[in-house]
Design a protein that fits this description.
Blueprint: E1 14-17, H1 41-52, E2 56-62, H2 66-72, H3 75-78, E3 85-87, H4 91-102, E4 109-112, H5 116-125, E5 130-132, H6 137-143, H7 151-154, H8 156-172, H9 177-184, E6 186-192, H10 198-207, H11 218-225, E7 230-239, E8 242-253, E9 265-273, H12 282-296, E10 301-306, H13 313-321, E11 325-326, H14 330-334, E12 343-348, E13 360-364, H15 365-369
Parallel strand pairs: 1-2, 1-4, 2-3, 4-5, 6-13, 9-10
Antiparallel strand pairs: 6-7, 7-8, 8-9, 10-12, 11-12
Helix pairs in contact: 10-11
């Protein structure tokens, strides 16, 4: 049986590497000099191959923190790793910190470690984390073969490095969090997805969990996006540090009016955003701009399909704050009922609509490109 049986590559956002016996052969703290052991060429090649597919790499090593200082002196190796953890703390705690620093779910991590004890400790305390031996790495890479790689994926490691710069600037900034966000000059543009953007929208549907309303599969999203009355929207974001790229996707169904007695409705079977923009108001701004566009198009009702999960509490709170509440008459509006594990939340578009946070500039892409 393969170690990747039942393995979903779309769910992996970061591979975390042990150092001694995994990234290199020797034990770094036992070195007679300040020179680090030489990394295994196969391990570095695997890290680079994963990065080319948009998978991040980090470090979790139970060793002296000075080892990380020594690693900083080897930039060609250090640059491959984000949010590294080198200390004597439990490896499960290191993984929690890595996930927090990267803004991803712990279950989106994979640990590569030569120690059966460390793999068992992580497996017991973080059962959602897949643990592998160094010998399993070729099978891990093979699991990604044949999968579409978007331009966004190829830039992901670079964008997370930019995020480290943002975080460092935020820690140095002398002012409130809101003042820092204003200083960042964040700009969100919303528009209909182009053909080149569709692969990224499918990727968001597959890979996002915290800010994903329904978990619609990429195949189903592609099918619905090409159906009459449906349109796929994307959101892009930039700030003074650079571009975040495409950070949001929403499928809109405008075919829900069977007669004049039925309110014109925009229904959103999927709203998905990258976890990289969590906490910056982008999800709310995207949702609110869709609601405005719906009203401008003559819709009177706005609805979102929600499939509650352990991961998407943040999305559920956002929908509630936007005034959406469970709608029981969805079958009379759409002609179909939601899946058994899903609900449809809706609200009227009359009166005042919520607006984006004051630090975020929002525009339609057509306007921004004019």
């Amino acid at each position: 049986m393969s170690v990747t049986d039942g393995f979903d590559p779309d769910g992996v956002k970061c591979v975390v590497w042990d150092l001694d016996g995994t990234l290199w052969d020797e034990i770094a703290v036992e070195s007679a000099t300040d020179d680090l052991p030489t990394p295994r060429p196969a391990a570095l090649a695997a890290i680079d191959a994963l990065a080319a597919r948009g998978v991040l790499s980090s470090i979790a090593s139970r060793s002296a923190p000075s080892v990380l200082d020594r690693l900083d002196a080897v930039p060609e190796v250090r640059a491959r790793f984000l949010a590294p953890q080198v200390s004597w703390q439990d490896k499960s705690e290191s993984l929690r910190r890595i996930a927090k620093d990267l803004g991803i779910a712990v279950d989106a991590l994979v640990l590569v470690d030569d120690s059966p004890y460390e793999r068992a400790e992580v497996g017991a305390l973080l059962p959602g984390v897949r643990t592998l031996t160094p010998e399993d790495v070729p099978a891990l890479l093979a699991a990604f073969e044949g999968r579409e790689v978007t331009a966004e994926s190829r830039e992901r490691v670079h964008r997370y490095r930019t995020e480290e710069t943002r975080r460092a600037e935020g820690e140095r900034f002398e002012g409130s969090r809101e003042e820092f966000l204003r200083w960042c000059d964040m700009r969100l543009t919303v528009g209909a997805a182009t053909a080149e953007e569709i692969p990224r929208a499918l990727e968001l549907a597959a890979r996002t969990h915290r800010l994903n309303s329904s978990g619609l599969t990429p195949d189903r999203l592609r099918e619905l996006a090409s159906a009459d009355g449906h349109e796929l929207y994307t959101a892009r974001m930039t700030d003074r540090f650079g571009t975040y790229g495409i950070i949001g996707a929403a499928l809109v169904d405008r075919a829900h009016r069977t007669d004049r007695a039925t309110p014109a409705t925009w229904s959103v079977p999927l709203l998905a955003l990258s976890c990289r923009v969590a906490g910056r108001g982008a999800a709310a701004a995207f949702l609110f701009r869709l609601m405005e566009r719906a009203r401008e198009a003559g819709a009177e009702e706005f609805r979102v399909t929600l499939r509650p999960t352990d991961a998407n509490l943040e999305m559920r709170i956002l929908l509630r704050q936007a005034g959406l509440r469970r709608t029981d008459d969805i079958a009379t509006v759409t002609g179909t009922a939601p899946a058994a594990d899903s609900a449809v939340l809706g609200r009227t578009l009359e009166g005042d609509l919520p607006g984006p946070p004051g630090w975020l500039h929002v525009s339609d892409r057509e306007d921004a490109e004019a």
